[in-house]
Amino acid sequence: MSDSTIPSIDTDRGPPFADREAVRVRLGSVEVSGIDNTSSNSYSKPWVKRWEEIVSQEAGKCVEVNCKRAADRGGHVWKTSDRSKRHCYIIPICRHHNLKQYDRGGNPGNFLTKPDTYGVKMSSHEAYA
Ligand SMILES: [Zn+2]
Predict the structure, then answer these.
(1) What is the pTM of this model?
(2) pLDDT for residue 128
């Protein structure tokens, strides 16, 4: 078996997940915390495309309240106040706000979103699909 017969992951489309479970929700002026171990995954760019499809907006600027950088990736976050971790959200963010220091348990461990932010809500296990 040659290497060329091993199926590769299609990173243009991102991992499959159930679209019917991914919905647009208001996520403005909310404290959010990054999900561990997703900040460096190779699906970051496709996730922001998925956000654009579901929210029907261009990603534009990072959703952190004071950030003026372009959102070039989709970050996976929880609401900081939500301890159940049942649902997570994709939001468009910049490289800086995707760093581990904004993950739960980091320092500061969260950030506040802009008032007009939308997130794509999905079940947490889908984030690791
Ligand atoms: Zn940012």
Answers:
(1) 0.78
(2) 58
